What we know:
- By secondary structure, the chain is an alpha+beta fold.
- Helices cover 47% and strands 20% of the residues.
- The longest helix is centred in the first third of the chain and has 38 residues.
- The protein is flat, with a radius of gyration of 26 Å.
Amino acid sequence: MSLAHKLDRILLRHDELRDLLAVHTMSDPADFAKLSKEYSDLTDISETITKLRNLEQESKDLAEMMVDSSADAEMRDLATTEFHNLKADVAVLEQEIRVLLLPKDADDERNVILEVRAGTGGEEAGLFAATLLRMYQRYAAVKGWKFELLNSADTGLGAIREASASITGKGVYARLKYESGVHRVQRVPETESSGRIHTSAATVAVLPEVEEVDIEIDEKDLQIDVYRASGAGGQHVNTTDSAVRITHIPTGVVVTQQDERSQHKNKAKAMKILRARLYEAERARKDAVRAANRKDQVGSGDRSERIRTYNFPQGRVSDHRINLTLYKIQQITDGEALDELIDALTSEDQAARMSEDID
């Protein structure tokens, strides 16, 4: 099917859906919701196609004017200048349409479970893990998303061993999915009297948040243990067995939750994290199969992959997947300039996928 024919079909379908929704005679609300979503999904590309068609018609009219012997030389010169300007605008719209035609990631609109863990580097790794957690919390605030801390194991010195959070909002996974992997930091620890630069690391996992209907978990596959919760340094010790540890026996995945004083609430949060981890494991397996023949891939989301280095003495952040370095470390860790990295990663991934389609 030619590109022009494909664009015609999109416009036709968009018009059909508009007419169907206008009469709204469907008795099943689910059908109406399904068609409404399809209409919404096609709206952006339909509007862009319409703009492209209008520009193409203008270009055609200008091309005719350029060779019109009855027009004076000044008019033909103006038409020539405008024609070349429109060619650049047409190229931009054609690129936008190619991006919009790329298959959508079904999980892009999902909320996420964010997990941050200290890696190699001792106390400094824990401090860096806390820096990353704050970065994503501030970024969520910039985007207008809701950030809820689900679980945190801290050392009592401002460092964390691990933490998980729920981030909800529009298109959260689409923006954060490239953040999974090993983040490395190079800086002079406050406790280092000699001023030597230390290198440490933390691991980030971004998991699409899923509902019970998205993934089935058999109760027989779960081992649920309850125990008495305690905080760092013996603080916040509960007098009841409210902490919960859930083990998914077939996969060996273990989730613990103790931040709530209610055993019921801790179990609910633990199940939310467990569903996300199991869903992500299956997603990663499918992605690995699809990516087997892929030449250019912007990060697999593999937690063992080193994706980024934050060098505080030089004030730079380098993303190793796309060889991009920004000298904006404070703005990035404050969440204000993180979009610059994410936009570049998104563009690179789109370019790689378009290249696959051409191949």
